TrEMBL record:
GO terms for biological process: cell adhesion; Rho protein signal transduction. Transmembrane segments: none annotated. The keyword Cytoplasm applies. This is Alpha-catulin. GO terms for molecular function: actin filament binding. Belongs to the vinculin/alpha-catenin family. The keyword Cytoplasm applies. The gene is Ctnnal1. It is found in: Cytoplasm. One of its GO terms (cellular component) is cytoplasm. Keywords: Cytoplasm.
Length: 722
């Protein structure tokens, strides 16, 4: 609004409509500033240490808003301006000054409010730390119950504050680090409860004490990491930064090599050689790994050797081109650049294949959790010898998974995924020994219900992390194959005038800022629904199922439509959007057909409900197709059509959110009835064999679950009975 005021063109003739529009904008700015300042003043009254600074900034903002309102009070003017009344037309510099004052004072209010939020998080962390110290020292159950109840409430408060902060972070790396730290805190809260109970029940047990100390230590580290992110500080310099990955190294190296086309002198050959040397050093993580296949190792070594040769050739031609810039030499340089980049792409593909194939094999092999089951059984039996045997197997499994995470980090493709790999590595590294100490405690006290419950909690954390690794692997593959940035987008989009003869007469239109603002709420609802649909499809073991495939396709298209409401993504014009809506409706109709086929697999009692939902879907998709194909002439009619298309897409997605869990439930019910769950095939010959069927656990979302924390607090009464 301020920009439109500053940039308005002075015309000799000013219509009443123009004058009224200017006045409306000025009043709107003043009203918005008034509301903003009211909130700022309320914050100031609650925080006395910043009250004076905040009050001054609020007064400045209010004064600037009022000045803008006065200078734009032009609707009552006659066309020949009154000399006594200063307006935007007579004093445009006054509006510019007021706008600058307004923006600087508003920024100051925001910065001060941010300082208050940071202080609240630090205060909340300090409360949690103080209560943790009390929990470490308690010696009776009754005292523990009281203090843990207080601790639970403080953790819930911390969860709310840090959750809001995580949503506000713009830096994706910080967001990922915050999510990882909060996930640790959520899981450790339950671990702290059972580990402390076990220690209280068996105060002389060394393994129980080690188990409890490990949880407290990990929680303190996570709390410190949250504060480092919030305050943007790294006490030990840059040691928090992860080492460079092969992917990021190759990306930077290729950028430098391709930069030679524009400038032959912007870097030295030593610089380029050093960069390649660093990349090839990192490939040793793969070639030295005991878990890399012989074939992958040989290919990586061959490509490393080839990369050195290609760089030597490139440097040779490059040096010649610096001395004599002939056409032939420039062509030779182009060939050398292409061959070097191609070699690096092949190396990137090879390390990706090595890491992801290892991960897929390991996750498939460990999905039955046989070692954990064996530890629970032998622990309850009090069989110390068998527990020792299985703890060795778990240590081997931990080493495999840690190595897998390290290799996946090299090929993760984005910084947030890289951070997620580092978090996963840390989780396996820490949780493995904690399971071992919990199992040893149970073996020493086989009749202890608390020790058994404690082992269960740590095993669940391990299983949850394995489940999350399957999702992480899928995301890494999606990034590598170009299927997602923030989220997959629907790439087979028909372009206006290219695929449809009826579009020749239509002029593509973009939404302006005001129209985007109007449909922003609808777009946000669509975004949330796509997240819900993605969560539902990820639960399915068979990702090739037609229902899942169509659901994912619809979610991807709906996400593209959400991006359109923000003025982003592949859909650039309203005509793009209408095409996308038509394709979305077609995909929905195909899903309905898949549901009809799916209904043949379910029990007769469940069939009518599924078919009824499928008919609803067909009807809604037909309505959307009619709306998308309807002609719209003029700006107002086009916007109405956009609004209707997004609204009807939202309605279809809402129905899809109900359909997918219903299908999943019926599928599981049918499988349970037929007993057709398939065990996972063995990965190695020395696999622990039992008669139980394997299964892939459902996804556990690694976020700081406020509800789960609240449940910990409300369910504390059972402790008193013990």
């Amino acid at each position: 609004q301020i920009t439109s005021l500053i940039n308005h063109k002075d015309k000799p003739k000013r219509s009443d409509k123009t004058l009224q529009a200017i006045q409306r904008v000025g009043q709107a700015v003043n009203l918005a500033v008034g509301r903003f300042v009211t909130v700022g003043e309320a914050i100031a009254n609650e925080n006395h240490e910043l009250k004076e600074e905040m009050s001054v900034a609020c007064i400045e903002a209010r004064r600037a808003g009022e000045t803008i309102a006065q200078l734009t009070d032009v609707a009552s003017l006659d066309h020949p301006e009154s000399d006594s009344h200063i307006t935007i037309f007579t004093d445009k510099t006054g509006v510019v000054k007021a706008a600058r004052l307004l923006l600087s004072s508003v920024t100051k209010v925001l910065v001060l409010a941010d300082r208050i939020v940071i202080k609240q998080i630090i205060t909340s962390r300090n409360k949690v730390l103080a209560t943790m110290e009390q929990l470490e020292k308690v010696s009776s159950f009754q005292e523990f119950v009281q203090i843990f109840s207080q601790f639970g409430n403080e953790m819930v408060e911390f969860a709310h504050l840090t959750g809001d902060r995580q949503n506000d972070l713009k830096d994706e790396k910080k967001k990922a680090r915050m999510a990882a730290s909060r996930a640790v805190l959520e899981k450790c809260t339950m671990m702290l409860l059972t580990a402390s109970k076990t220690c209280l029940r068996h105060p002389d047990c060394e393994s129980a004490r080690i188990n409890k100390d490990g949880v407290f230590h990990r929680m303190r580290l996570a709390l410190e990491q949250v504060i480092d992110i919030v305050t943007d500080s790294r006490p030990n310099g840059e040691n928090e930064m992860a080492p460079i990955s092969i992917y990021s190294g190759i990306k930077e190296f290729k950028n430098k090599v391709e930069g030679l086309r524009e400038n032959l002198y912007f870097l030295s050959k030593e610089n380029l050689s050093t960069m390649l040397e660093v990349i090839l050093e990192h490939t040793e993580d793969f070639t030295d790994s005991a878990y890399t296949s012989h074939e992958h190792r040989e290919h990586i070594l061959e490509l490393s050797k080839q990369a050195k040769m290609e760089l030597e050739q490139l440097v040779s031609v490059w040096m010649q081109a610096q001395n004599q810039k002939t056409k032939d030499l420039m062509e030779d340089l182009e060939v050398a650049i292409l061959k070097t980049c191609q070699c690096m792409n092949e190396l990137k593909r090879e390390v990706h294949g090595a890491a992801t194939s290892l991960a897929a094999d390991l996750l498939k092999y460990h999905t039955d959790h046989m070692v954990l089951k064996a530890l629970k059984i032998t622990g309850v039996e009090g069989n110390l010898e068998a527990v020792a045997e299985y703890t060795c197997k778990l240590s081997e499994q931990k080493d495999q998974l840690v190595e897998m995470c390290r290799l996946l980090r090299h090929v993760s493709g984005t910084e947030p995924l890289e951070i997620t790999c580092i978090h996963a590595e840390d989780t396996f590294q820490v949780t493995g020994p904690q399971i071992i100490s919990a199992a040893e405690t149970l073996a020493l006290h086989p009749s202890s219900k608390i020790a058994k419950e404690n082992l269960e909690v740590f095993c669940e954390a391990w299983e949850s992390q394995l489940s999350d690794m399957s999702l992480l692997l899928r995301e890494i593959n999606d990034v590598f194959e170009g299927r997602r940035g923030e989220k997959r987008v629907y790439l087979s989009l028909p372009r206006p005038g290219k695929h449809n003869a009826n579009l020749k007469a239509l002029k593509p239109v973009k939404l302006d800022t005001e129209e985007q603002a109007k449909i922003a709420k609808l777009g946000l609802e669509l975004h949330l629904l796509t997240s819900d649909v993605d969560s539902e499809t990820e639960k399915w073991e068979d990702q090739e199922n037609e229902v899942v495939q169509h659901g994912q396709g619809m979610s991807s298209m709906a996400y593209s439509m959400y991006l359109f409401t923000r003025g982003e993504g592949l859909l650039k014009t309203t005509q793009d959007l209408f095409h996308q809506a038509e394709i979305f409706a077609t995909e929905g109709t195909m899903l309905a057909s898949a549901l009809h086929a799916f209904s043949d697999q379910v029990h007769e009692d469940d069939k009518p409900l599924l078919l009824l939902e499928a008919e609803k879907l067909i009807s809604m998709c037909k309505q959307l197709q009619i709306t998308a194909k309807a002609s719209a002439q003029g700006k107002s009619a086009t916007f109405t059509k956009v609004d209707a298309c997004i609204l009807k897409t939202r309605n279809v997605m809402t129905l899809l959110c109900q359909l997918l869990p219903l299908c999943f439930k019926l599928l599981r019910k049918n499988k349970a009835g037929n007993g057709c769950l398939k065990p996972a095939p063995p990965w190695k010959e020395d696999r622990i064999r039992t008669g139980t069927n394997a299964h892939i656990p459902e996804r556990r979302v690694e976020t700081f679950g406020i509800k789960s924390l609240e449940n910990h607090v409300t369910n504390m009464t059972f402790l008193e009975s013990k």
